[in-house]
Automatic annotation (TrEMBL):
Source organism of this protein record: Triplophysa rosa (Cave loach)
Superkingdom, natural source: Eukaryota
Descriptive protein name: Endonuclease domain-containing 1 protein-like
SMART domains according to UniProt: Endonuclease_NS, NUC
InterPro entries, A to Z: DNA/RNA_non-sp_Endonuclease_sf, Endo_G_ENPP1-like_dom, ENDOD1, ENPP1-3/EXOG-like_nuc-like, His-Me_finger_sf
Keyword Lipoprotein (UniProt): no
Residues in the signal sequence: 1-32
Residue ranges occupied by any DNA/RNA non-specific endonuclease/pyrophosphatase/phosphodiesterase domain in the UniProt entry: 75-280
Molecular function GO terms recorded: endonuclease activity; hydrolase activity; metal ion binding; nucleic acid binding
Domain ENPP1-3/EXOG-like endonuclease/phosphodiesterase: 76-276
A UniProt-annotated Pfam family: Endonuclease_NS
Record keywords, A-Z: Endonuclease, Hydrolase, Nuclease, Signal
Length: 289
């Protein structure tokens, strides 16, 4: 009954230098909005974005390093991202899961966000504040482009297309991306479609936050993009009008075999984040209780 190909978006780093150079010349750009999150509050549980001391409070960035992006694509907001322009990876992406019908992985090119850059009319200006194809090319860390908002959790193909932006991407170990993380994505969308309902009209609705914790290494050969040490995911929704949440936490490491990511509580996730220097006060409104 339920078929959704989360494994479809495992990236294989097969492109060669000439393609990489070509992509840099004709690089597609997505025009999102670097505003505060109040314009796209629908992607947060009860319309409230997380509070993280020093990063994000009351939907406002607390430091120029962190940009609040309402991800606009084909004339509508599709999800929201808090982006770290120093480490050139997102802190988290926030999105809703609304349907359980099958969608195909779109044939999308990867997009960059021009509004993160100082405006310039110079031809071929490099992307200074975000990752690009070149950063991921021949990186020698056995990582590929890991979506925070995975295209397979999208409500339709246009939303799926919107996920292919570097502002939604972290360097993720290839075996982890296609292994336990992918199994967790498949498992959670099933859980959400069964248990999560909008209080108003009883349609499928869950609010998801997926994020990455900064590690010590940066992608070679340019040393611009930080490789996460851990990745996490949590969702909150209503189940029979009561708040319902799950949380997951996993190291961004190579793996072998059928590893499963254990569930933790929302409270434990917040504690892990605090230990790892992300000073979360709340991820979900009223801690989703
Ligand atoms: C990848 O990088 C290594 C150096 O780390 C270099 O020797 C090799 O030629 C590069 N491969 C390609 C295809 O550019
Ligand atoms: C990050 O959190 C994990 C899980 O709680 C913990 O094992 C690890 O030591 C933490 N890392 C740091 C740098 O505190
Ligand atoms: C963040 O803090 C503000 C101000 O204290 C509060 O109104 C809002 O509900 C908080 N967000 C969450 C997700 O709880």
């Amino acid at each position: 009954m339920f078929k959704r190909e989360c494994k479809g978006f495992v990236e294989k780093m097969m492109f060669n230098t000439s393609i990489s150079v070509l992509l840099l010349l004709v690089f597609p750009a997505v025009i999102s909005e670097v505003v505060d999150f109040s314009k796209c509050s629908e992607f947060f549980f009860e319309g409230k974005s997380p509070n993280i001391t020093g990063m994000l409070v009351k939907s406002q960035s607390q430091n120029n390093q962190y940009k609040t992006i309402c991800q606009k694509y084909k004339n509508a907001y599709r999800f929201a991202t808090l982006y770290d322009t120093t480490n050139r990876i997102p802190v988290f992406s926030a999105y809703t899961v609304t349907v359980d019908k099958e969608i195909k992985r779109p044939e999308n090119t990867w997009m960059n966000e021009p509004q993160l850059e100082v405006s310039s009319d110079e031809m071929g200006m490099p992307y200074e504040n975000q990752a690009t194809d070149e950063d991921f090319f021949n990186n020698s860390y056995s990582v590929n482009r890991g979506h925070l908002f995975p295209s397979c959790h999208s409500g339709d193909e246009v939303i799926a297309g919107s996920t292919f932006t570097y502002t939604n991407i972290v360097p993720q170990k290839i075996s982890f991306n296609s292994g336990s993380w992918n199994r967790m994505e498949i498992e959670t969308i099933k859980l959400m479609s069964v248990h999560c309902r909008d209080k108003k009209d009883n349609k499928v609705l869950a609010h998801v936050l997926t994020g990455a914790v900064l590690g010590k290494n940066k992608l070679k050969l340019k040393y611009r993009v930080t490789i996460p040490s851990f990745m996490w995911m949590t969702f909150c929704c209503y189940n029979n009008k009561s708040p319902f949440s799950k949380a997951y936490w996993a190291p961004n490491e190579d793996e072998k075999g059928d590893i499963r990511i254990n569930e933790i509580t929302l409270q434990e996730l917040q504690e892990n984040l605090i230990k790892n220097n992300t000073k979360v006060t709340e991820l979900f409104y009223k801690h989703c209780t």
